[in-house]
Amino acid sequence: DSSDDIEDVSLFDADDDVSRRSKKSKIRHPVASFFHLFFRVSAIVVYLLCELLTSSFIACMVTIILLLSCDFWAVKNVTGRLMVGLRWWNQVDDDGRSHWVFEARKVSAQGSKTSSEAESRIFWLGLITCPMIWVIFAFSALFSFKVKWLAVVVMGVVLQGANLYGYIRCKVGSRKNLTSMATNYLGKQFLRQVSFPGFWKPS
To answer: Which residues cross the membrane (predicted)?
Structure first.
């Protein structure tokens, strides 16, 4: 049996030190920001250019999987915590039950944010865009009958999709919140159309 737990807890004591840094810096964690994009972009580049670089499919496959694995670990354990204050993992309790835990950094008493908008944009842009590219690669490999590449592409979709799902759960809280956000967005679009009917009329 498995259940989902949503917890709002502080991440590490070190986060208090981060909150004291200058707010003028747009990117407070340049190394984390670099590696957040480096591994996942490198895996995509190697996939696109591997046939030009080498004729060994095994070497390409191993390289891509290593890059995807490094990306999964770095994003799940490091860059998410530093760049946006989110973290997720799975733990097993004493009864053998599996729990998915989704953490979000607590806002400080002064209400100050420890992550910058620039880092947040970099984080979410890389987190959302790259899995979409791997999905495109999956359809391309399927329709072009490149069966040997299909396993590599599926690995990319699974590893990067898992991080995307985990951080979305951290951000919005639960599946109910996901549904609520979608409903609210559609409601706002409907109200805009009703409030400004002339705006939607063809010229």
So the answer is: 30-49, 55-75, 122-143, 149-168
CA distances from 128 to 38, 95, 123, 135, 189 (A): 15, 36, 9, 11, 23
DSSP code of residue 78 = I
Return the closest-CA partner of residue 58 out of 156, 149, 147: 149
**Closest by alpha carbon to 181, among 166, 199, 169?**
169
Question: Residue with structure tokens 């080498």?
Answer: 54
* Residue 169 is assigned to a structural domain of this protein: yes
Range(s) of the domain holding residue 144:
28-104+123-189
Q: How many domains does the chain have?
A: 1
Six-digit token pair at 134? 């791997």
pLDDT in tens, the chain (203 residues): 544 555 444 444 444 444 444 444 478 889 999 999 999 999 999 999 988 888 889 999 999 999 999 999 999 999 999 999 898 888 887 787 888 888 887 765 444 455 688 899 999 999 999 999 999 999 999 998 888 899 999 999 999 999 999 999 888 874 445 455 555 555 555 556 545 455 444 44
